[in-house]
Amino acid sequence: QVQLVESGGGLVQAGGSLRLSCTTSALGFAIVSMGWYRQAPGKQRELVAAISPFIRNDYDTNYADSVKGRFSISRDYAKKTVYLQMNSLKPEDTAVYFCHADIKETRPPFTVTDYWGQGTQVTVSE
Q: Among 23, 41, 81, 114, which has the minimal tally of Cβ within 10 Å of its Cβ?
C-alpha cells in the first residue's frame, strides 16, 4: 500500500511563509504526478499545485489562479518528495492541505491509482 507522509503545516501570520513536504513510499519510476490540494471548511477540495511527469527534470507545473506568483511547487526525485513553498500567505489560504499522487502499477495493466495523504492544517491569521 502506497503511503504519502506530509509535514510542514502550522499557524502563520498574513504575509508569512510556510513550506510543505510530502514523501511517498512508491517506487520513483511509478510516480506519474504529485501535488497538493486544499479544503477549507464548507468548501470543496481544490487543486493548489501539481507536477507532471514526476520522473522528468523538465516537468510541467500547474497552479490554481489564486496562488500563482505566491506558491511554488518543486520535487526531489531521489527522495520521492514534493514540496510546496507558500509565500505571502493570506487568511483565505487557511485550509487543510492534502498531498496527492498518481501512482502507476509496475506490471500490466499498469493501472494508475490516486493516493492521498492524511492532510496538514495551514492556518493564516490576520
A: 41
Which phi-psi region, left, alpha or beta, contains residue 77 (left: φ > 0; alpha: ψ -120 to 50)? alpha
C-alpha span between 34 and 104 (Å, rounded): 12
User: What cell numbers appear for 32 in the block?
Assistant: 506519474
The predicted-structure confidence for 53-77, as pLDDT tens digits, reads as follows: 998 888 999 999 999 999 999 999 9
Contact 110, 103 (CB under 8 A): no
Cα of 47 vs its chain's centroid, Å: 9
Count other C-beta atoms under 10 Å from residue 126's C-beta: 6
CB contact set of 118 (below 8 Å; sequence gap of 6+): 4, 6, 98
